[in-house]
Amino acid sequence: MANIHELKYTYSLRMADNAWILSHRLSEWCSNGPFLEEDLALTNIALDLIGRAQAFYNYAAELEGKGRTADDLAYRRNERQYYNNLLVEMPNGNFADTIARQLYMSVYEYYFFMSLQNSKDETFAALAAKTLKEVKYHMAHAADWTVRLGDGTEESHEKMQQAINNLWMYTGELFEADETDTALIAQGLGVDNPSLHSLWETHIKNVLEEAKLSLPAANYMQTGGRKGVHTEHLGHMLGEMQYLQRAYPDAKW
After folding, report:
1. pLDDT at residue 242, as a whole number
2. Which is the CATH superfamily of the domain at 4-247?
3. Cα–Cα distance measured from residue 58 to residue 68, given in angstroms and rounded to the nearest whole number
4. What are the tens digits of pLDDT across the range 170-203?
């Protein structure tokens, strides 16, 4: 069994990786948003996520104690060493796809960080409290757009429902718990993911009802990201994200 520092290191990496990968996805909308205000909104959410990723990477580096930096953890790991949920690495697709991904993730993060702010680990608790302020905006933004698209034109309704349906299979992984989770929960340090599922699903259902959209039927759920097993999309992303670090290692700017 790993010691407590190793467990918290893995836990911190998971939170950092989720924020880091999703920030890159949202940053891909920069200059491509449907209109200027939304272009700025998505970019600002991406910046929030980058800040969160940096904070959790810094803590992970401190816990690891091997002299690595946040940049080392962000840029110098191989695909199988990333532990983000599969949901955040899904391509942007059309605007409805991005909004559905953001709705699922931000509602989950709201309940996750609500719980984590009660952690006995002071750093986890402090970062969770700070993150929660940002997540409330991210969640409201995604819910607002879900309703606008779902209760909009026939075309926007169809695209939003399709996006909700297509990404549903990646939501089950959010509520998994493994040995790391179990050990940290037992010591009052982590979050009981399975207990969040009913809260999350009720919240999602309420948003979809307002948007005149249907909750997808339960089906097979994709999993593996938390163990380093990813879709092909992550490898392509890392090829872009890590290019400069790999081409010019230890470069000083």
Report:
1. 85
2. Ferritin, core subunit, four-helix bundle (1.20.1260.10)
3. 9
4. 999 999 999 999 999 999 999 999 999 999 999 9
In angstroms, the CA 196 to CA 174 distance is 9
For residue 189, give the nearest of 252, 136, 239, 116 by alpha carbon. Answer: 116
Is the C-alpha dihedral spanning 168, 229, 49, 130 positive or negative? positive
pLDDT class of 216 with cuts at 50, 70, 90: very high
Contact 14, 84 (CB under 8 A): yes
6 Cβ contact list (under 8 Å, min separation 6): 63
Q: Can you tell me the distance from the alpha carbon of 38 to that of 40, in angstroms, rounded to the nearest whole number?
A: 5
pLDDT at position 1, please? 56
Among 77-91, 94-108, 151-165, 213-227, name the one with the lowest average pLDDT.
213-227
Rounded CA separation 81/242 (Å) = 14
Record the pTM: 0.95
| Per-residue DSSP letter, 118 | T
Written in H, E and C, the secondary structure of 140-207 is HHHHHHHHHHHCCCHHHHHHHHHHHHHHHHHCHHHHCCCHHHHHHHHCCCCCCHHHHHHHHHHHHHHH
Q: CA quadruple 93, 50, 206, 29: dihedral positive or negative?
A: negative
Q: Which pLDDT score is estimated for 97?
A: 98
Q: Are 189 and 174 in contact (CB under 8 A)?
A: no
